[in-house]
Specification:
With about 140 residues, the protein is of the alpha+beta class. Helices cover about 20% and strands about 35% of the residues. A 6-stranded mixed sheet has the order 1-2-5-4-6-7. A hairpin with a 2-residue loop joins strand 8 and strand 9. Helix 1 runs parallel beside helix 3. The longest helix is centred in the C-terminal third of the chain and has 13 residues. It is globular and about 40 Å long. It starts with 5 loop residues before the first strand and ends with a strand.
């Protein structure tokens, strides 16, 4: 098993290692995950990233996966967001390859905004021409970015 990103036709239920494009996307619950959102015109693409695939730490998120996101999954977007437990992914206890992958995203997804959140459910949408992030707190809440 390797770290492979695959499309899903369920943009409101993007699971680990999946991505989708729609006017609104939502990720399944984040424990230690992060998401990448890329906005263009009236659509947003969301990618649900996990530290490592399954229970196997031999398949961590890395620079190769980050390059795949930039080159294949969401090239040419107008605005990007990194959302979730970013501090965990860049902290001292994480595999160095994970940090390199996050650095690659930061260097290649421009303009990029970051939103540090803990456990929860997140997403993004375009509403009346405004790019927004979303989070679940007794109902879906939306913030313009």
């Amino acid at each position: 098993m390797s770290y492979q990103l695959k499309p899903t036709n369920k943009p409101l239920e993007i699971k680990e290692c999946e991505y989708a494009t729609s006017h609104e996307v939502r990720f399944t619950y984040f424990d230690s995950c992060i998401g990448v959102l890329g906005y263009k015109d009236n659509n947003v693409t969301g990618v649900h990233l996990v530290l490592s695939v399954g229970e196997n730490p031999n398949y961590p998120f890395n620079e190769e996966v980050a390059k795949d996101i930039c080159d294949r999954v969401m090239p040419g977007k107008q605005e990007y967001v990194l959302i979730g437990d970013i501090a965990l992914w860049t902290g001292t206890t994480v595999d160095p390859s994970v940090k390199k992958g996050v650095t690659y995203l930061r260097n290649n997804l421009k303009p990029l905004k970051e939103f540090q959140f803990g456990k929860g459910q997140y997403g993004g949408r375009v509403s009346s021409g405004e790019n927004q992030i979303s989070y679940y707190d007794d109902g879906w809440q939306y913030l313009d970015i």
